[in-house]
Amino acid sequence: MIDFDGDGYPDILLRNYRMKAALYCNANVSGNNYLNVRLTGTKSNRDAIGAKIKITSAGKTQMREVYAGSGFLSMSTLTQFFGLGKADKIDALEVIWPSGAKQVFKDISANRMVKITEGKSEPVIEELKPRIPKEMVAAALHEREAKKAAH
Ligand SMILES: [Ca+2]
Fold it and tell me: 7 CA to middle of ligand 1, Å?
């Protein structure tokens, strides 16, 4: 999984044995909100493998653990994706680092990339700008639907 077009929503790139690679682009027609979290360890390993992230939003709690690999000879991006539904903010984001250190951040707006460095009290929060314009994705989807209808 990787956010190929940089719009904050995860896409899937599949490489198959003796076949062409396939990119499944998530067009996000739902309009739901998200949060991306990227951790950098200082005392812990730099990629923060083994860190746990807990977010609370609209009364719901979600948890992720940062993994080094997934599947055979493949891996996912180290950016953690949280789907938020219609919630537009995160009440609390808690990181438990492999070193045992714990950090809590409050009131983060949705649809952002939050970069957290172990031990730093302020995260770097970025608004993501898609590399592929929404109109191009919409046009590609429209073309695909038209092809389907023609068959
Ligand atoms: Ca994407």
Answer: 5
Q: Which domains are delineated in the chain?
A: 32-150 (2.60.40)
Q: Which amino acid is at 106?
A: K
The terminus-to-terminus CA distance of the chain in angstroms comes to 30
| Strand arrangement, sheet containing 80-85 | 80-85, 33-40, 112-117, 124-126
Residue range 76-99, pLDDT digits in tens: 678 999 999 999 999 999 999 999
User: What is the sign, positive or negative, of the torsion defined by CA atoms of 82, 108, 50, 12?
Assistant: positive
* Distance from residue 8's CA to the centre of ligand 1 (Å): 5
Beta bridge partners of 104: 94
Nearest to 51 by CA among 59, 63, 62, 61: 63
Structure tokens at 23: 């990119």
What's the pTM?
Answer: 0.79
